[in-house]
Design a protein that fits this description.
The protein is α/β, with parallel strands linked by helices. The protein has 16 helices and 19 strands. It folds into three domains: 74 residues, Rossmann fold, CATH 3.40.50; 231 residues, Mur-like, catalytic domain (UDP-N-acetylmuramoyl-L-alanine:D-glutamate ligase); 141 residues, Mur ligase, C-terminal domain (Protein-Tyrosine Phosphatase, Chain A, Alpha-Beta Complex), CATH 3.90.190. Helix 5 packs across helix 11, helix 10 packs antiparallel against helix 11 and helix 13 crosses helix 14. It is globular.
Length: 465
């Protein structure tokens, strides 16, 4: 479907948030008439039960594909599309798509910075809020898209370069089950051709499963954790090739923080990751994926040199609320990972550091079993205390008590000010205070941004105390 196909059609927009408004702006610019439908009665639009006179519907990502009205509309032959789907069907730009349960924003922005620093024409879109339909005229550009499962769910086009980071079950309050979530993520790969490229994190089975659906040339990010090295003979000199499982891609290891390029099973040292500013082993995986994208692009873009790639990574500080260093105040480091709303993301954040940690965890109860999560956290000997908050605080406390956790468990804080009163009970100079919630924030805060902003404000106030 293209813009000509929309002429003289009865067009509907489902949902009038940021994406719905972006579609409305695009349609207005092309002189097309449309009607808006939204389930929120406060907005004053018709609801979804009145969509059946339309011929084309633009779905916003927050609107579920299995909504009964949408299913009925499909049966009646109404075309269901979206801002992203329409864009990918019509753009001639070189698309780099990034998805994953954690790290996609950080990785997409890093790829954008590397290409921008090489002087290439590049734009950033997807979850970053830009109106991608406004980029349709940039045929000669690179467009880097951070893609959620909500956006990927109904695609029939995959990016030229697809990046699949860590994929674990998430958003099960939106998707009916884990299979639906993984199926949605798979759209980033399954429509690729042999002329495309795919990069996947080989540490995760679901990421590998998605990669298998693609016909593209494949590269993998393989990492080696310190515990794997400890299983080897301690008197034997450690060599990366002894643990190598991939033929082409990036090999990163935690012990020395080294990154290697792998080409047809030949290993070449590429970088010392201790020079990079992004903390955490999970970010070593994200950096590896970004390097692979840059190396693919550099085949045709000679300005994209290794010097540009590495300097861009050294200078990159990451995104707000993604393991963001707020600052060091009175000898205490404060990190905001409010965007991390899954147990896996919280574990990754905790494992990013070796100094003593006070970890703030909790929020909305999504009905997840947190027992394994608590056991994994209990293994992290650097955690000296957990401050459990929100609806899920008691559930988390029960899980921690089963683990024999040796640190302090603090509860009862009803807002960020009270959370920091708990912090002051246990924190010492040299400690890290980490907001790693592992779930959503809507019970105590407006959203993850509000939660992170309040954390940062309190941290800075701690510096003045």
């Amino acid at each position: 479907m293209n813009i000509t196909d929309l002429q003289n059609k009865r067009i509907g927009i489902l949902g009038f948030g940021m994406e719905g408004q972006a579609v409305a702006n695009f349609l207005k610019q092309h002189g097309l008439v449309f009607e808006v439908f939204d389930q929120n009665p406060k907005l004053g639009f018709k609801d979804f039960s009145e969509i059946f006179d339309c011929q084309v519907l633009f779905r916003s990502p927050g609107v579920k594909l299995n909504d009964p009205n949408i299913l009925q509309a499909e049966k009646q032959g109404i075309v269901i599309t979206s801002q992203l789907k329409f864009f990918l069907q019509n753009t001639k730009a070189k698309i780099i798509g990034v998805t994953g349960s954690k790290g996609k924003g950080t990785t997409a922005k890093l790829i954008y910075e590397i290409l921008r620093n090489a002087g290439l024409k590049v734009f950033l879109g997807g979850n970053f809020g830009s109106e991608v339909l406004s980029l349709l005229d940039y045929d000669d550009a690179y467009i880097v898209l951070e893609l959620s499962s909500f956006q990927l769910a109904d695609l029939d086009v995959s990016p030229h370069i697809a990046v699949v980071l860590m994929v674990v079950p998430e958003h099960l309050d939106y998707h009916k089950d884990a299979k639906e979530y993984f199926d949605a993520k798979s759209s980033i790969a399954k429509f690729q051709s042999k002329d495309d490229f795919l990069i996947a994190n080989s540490d995760y089975e679901e990421s590998l499963s998605i990669a298998k659906l693609s016909d593209a040339k494949k590269y993998y990010v393989q990492t080696l954790r310190e515990e794997e090295v400890s299983k080897a003979d301690p008197f034997k000199i450690y060599k990366p090739e002894e643990f190598l499982k991939i033929k082409d891609g990036i090999f990163a290891e935690e012990l020395e923080k080294h990154i290697y390029l792998v080409n047809d099973e030949e290993i070449q040292f590429y970088a010392d990751a201790k020079e990079f500013s992004l903390p955490g082993f999970h970010n070593l995986q994200n950096v590896g994926a970004a390097i692979l994208v840059a190396k693919i692009v550099s085949r045709t873009e000679k300005l994209l040199t290794d010097q540009v790639i590495l300097q861009s990574i050294r200078d990159y500080k990451g995104l707000e609320h993604r393991l963001e260093l707020v600052g060091t105040f009175n000898g205490v480091e404060f990190y905001d990972d409010s965007f991390g709303t899954t147990p896996e993301s919280a574990l990754a954040a905790v494992k990013a550091f070796s100094k003593p940690e006070i970890v703030i965890i909790g929020g909305v109860n999504k009905g997840v079993d947190y027992t394994n999560f608590a056991f994994e956290l209990a293994k992290a000997k650097q955690i000296k205390a957990v401050i459990l908050i929100g609806e899920i605080a008691k559930v988390l406390e029960s899980a921690f008590l089963k683990t024999g956790f040796s640190g302090k468990i603090l509860l009862g804080a009803k807002n960020m000010s009270e959370i920091f009163e708990k912090v002051k009970e246990v924190v010492l100079e040299g400690d890290i205070v980490l907001l790693a919630p592992a779930t959503s924030s809507f019970d105590m805060f407006k959203d993850y941004k509000d939660r992170g902003d309040q954390f940062k404000e309190q941290a800075r106030n701690y510096g003045n105390s």
